[in-house]
Design brief:
The complex is a heterodimer of chains A (about 260) and B (about 525). Chain A has eight helices and two strands. By secondary structure, chain A is mostly helical. In chain A, helix 1 packs parallel to helix 8 and helix 5 packs antiparallel against helix 6. In chain B, the strands form five sheets. Chain B has a six-stranded mixed beta sheet with strand order 5-6-7-3-8-9, sandwiched between helices. Chain B is about 30% helix and about 20% strand. Chain B contains 16 helices and 20 strands. The chains are: A mainly alpha (about 260), B alpha/beta (about 525).
Amino acid sequence: MRDALNLRGNHALLTRANPLAKFVAVFLISLVLALSIDWVSASTALIAELALFPLAGLTLRLLWLRAWPLIIAAVIGGWSTAIVAADSGAVLLDVGLWSISEGSLQLGLGFMLRGLAIALPAILLMSCTDPTDLADALAQKAKLPHRFVLGSLAAMRLVGLMAEEWQTIGMARRARGVGSQGSPIQRLKATLGQSFGLLVQAVRRASRLAVTMEARGFGGGQRTWARESTYSLLDAWVLLGGVVIATGAVLTAVGSGTWSFVWR
Amino acid sequence: MPATHSGTVRPAAISAEGWGWRHAGRSTPAIQGLDLRIEPGERVLLLGPSGAGKSTLLHALAGVLGDEEDDSDETGSLLIDGVPPRGQRGRAGLMQQDPETQVVLSRVGDDVAFGAENLAVPRDEIWSRVHEALDDVGLRTAAGGGLALDHPTAALSGGQKQRLALAGILAMRPGLILLDEPTANLDPAGVLEVRDAVGRCLDKTGATLVVVEHRVSVWKDLVDRIVVLQPGAAGGGVLLDGPPDQVLTEARSMLMAAGVWVPGYVPPTRARTQVAGPYELLIATQDLAVSREKPKRKGFKTIPPVPAQKDITAQVRAGQALTITGPNGAGKSTFALTLAGLLAPVAGTVSAGVGLSEGAGIDPYKWKADQLISRIGTVFQEPEHQFVTGKVLDELMFGPKHLGHGEDRVDELVERLRLGHLVDANPYTLSGGEKRRLSVATVLGAHPKVLVLDEPTFGQDANTWAELASFLSELLDAGTAVVSVTHDQEFSAVLGGAELRLGPVSQGETAHQEAGAA
């Protein structure tokens, strides 16, 4: 997982854009897509997003590796919507309780495409944005409190460590005779015990890390930034791209008459 | 602009007058009645039995000890350059024991810059300090790894992480450098790396040094003064103070009794008695490849992980020790865990002999947990990972209770490993040495025929070390097989037996087992 999120070696154009600009563009697209439930706006946005892949150094293979749970969830969501939604139009498939009609199929397709279209920009953002750079932008440009931003950043590093720790604790406990076998209740107990062990280690590590940070002068009022978070012309293009995709999705949907607000 | 922003370092002076500190929630002070003066530029090694408050003193000097709101209690005064440490951000830099928590950010350059940023050093100067600090700790030479500024910190070894922490401290230009057992978790090569980097940086900056460490020989030639603290129960304060050679001569027997590693002294241990063979074969590995990673599934294909070590052929025999050695990253611990039935082999086999398996099947990894613990006991490097209850006695009874036998052995273990006064304590509150003894005792409670230990002597004081070595030598004579991953040559010498040396895996070296003097 850590390797999958590693940005070293990714020199795509969008890695050079300011994370905050990317963040705003992604937010715009998601916002618009959350307003309607039709399939035209979703697929317009989806096609535009797929076209942007090379700019973020992303390939379909990488996308699948990083986002397969989301993709499968979107497909399943779409499928079940198609099955259970109220029928309208010609019935295409009817197996007892399950029936798929033109209307419900459209709804299901829209649901699936929308899920993908909303998830994809976030994955795009993560693929071409270093967490440290994002923190820099959030603190320097969005003016979020630096204690909060840097604290979260340092804590995120510990999360990776905890994944390794979980495996070690699991083995260490098996060596004590606490196994992941037996009845479901025994298994649950074993998992709870392991979680407690992990919690203890997480708290220890976190408090030591906090001492390290404090001993390096963290928590004072005034602070400088070794890495300046800057805007460039590229960021204007990123924002413009976000606006174009968002409005493009709305206009095509309105033009084709499929636009429908979620609350209607 | 404060003085810390200038290019040169102003060495700090420390003065303590009747100083003491009680942590919040504790009834007795961690340290009390301390009178001590350290002149600018002095290098001091701080010794004393555990519980003498050495770490508390270092934390106080680093300005990270408690705050006004909690109910901790300070007496007397502790000053750096005549001012309380708390108000002087960046005047002192602290390095702690656990390398993982000494790294704050995910890229090398950013991590070094972190302290200087917090002190509001101007950007251009931060980067010149970062470059200088990385050069000073030797992380940029080809031998030191030749690290680029965007090198991921997660990929560093323990010794490199500690040197990175030192660079981060140096970039703050502190007048006082505080090291709290900086090398306790490192292998011998890492220990020297860190020690030498500290020496170079002190020579260059002239900063004051206070270091806490059990292993005196590592720091003896680098410091010009040794201060021995007395535990609070014995009145607290300074017991001895003077040049290293003088203190080590005067207090030699007292320091040895306190478990300090005095140079040129290996604590006496029980000698092994020669037991005549045949030594029954308990576990054999054949062309074994090991990894902590699980196989990855891609579509319908299963892709095995890249092994940390491969082609290992070794034997574990009753009443014989097997020591696994080799450089960092050679897969020593991974091999030991695979041998112990805790990890699945990537390739090759681990097979238990009939005398060990006793009807449980040939592959230890497939054994159920209670089948495993009565056959192979594994002691992890970090004792806390293995604690499963909230009381020492429950901890000891846990294995026997599960198996339904062996509860009578617990009393013997409690006595043998001096845990009697601790049976009602919470395992997490024990000292490092006590935790180690407990973790060995808990695993032995299930009476395994094979005992596997991962770096059992890391960070241990001389007393715990000698007890552990003697105890294991006894077990060996009684017919238990002892497999240990260790860098500690004196320890393997006590146990005798065979050595399995694992080479760096990239060179494709095949591991082979050498029989030593049994």
